[in-house]
Amino acid sequence: MKKVMLYALSTCPFCAMAKKYFTSLQIPFDVVDVDLLKDDEKEVIINEVQRISGRRAFPVIVIENDVIVGYDELRVKEAMEK
After folding, report:
1. Could you write out the DSSP letters of every residue in 47-68?
2. Structural domains of the chain sorted by starting position, each given as residue range(s) with its CATH number in brackets
3. Which backbone phi and psi does 18 adopt, to 5 degrees?
4. Of 39, 21, 66, which Cα lies nearest the Cα of 31?
5. pLDDT tens across 29-68, in order?
6. Considering the entire predicted model, what is its pTM?
7. Neighbouring residues of 70: CB distance < 8 A, sequence distance ≥ 6
8. What is the DSSP letter of 61?
9. Burial grade of 42 (CB within 10 A; 0-12, 13-18, 19 or more)
10. Cα dihedral 61/56/44/13 (nearest 10)
């Protein structure tokens, strides 16, 4: 199984859809709800998200070496099938 990392916001509907998608397909994933982190840790993770994706937008889904900004089910499926 591929390693899946999800950077999300707890209030973001697209982030919730990504969580639901992985959960419904029983795909294990790690998630960080960035807005729930403490200030210093939050800034570190936001900078990491920007480094990985090139912007500060959520969700950011990392599947192995594929980075998907936003919830795009087709791109997620393609990355999982590689």
Report:
1. HHHHHHHSS--S-EEEETTEEE
2. 4-81 (3.40.30.10)
3. -65, -45
4. 21
5. 999 999 999 999 999 999 999 999 999 999 999 999 999 9
6. 0.94
7. 14, 57, 59
8. E
9. middle
10. -60
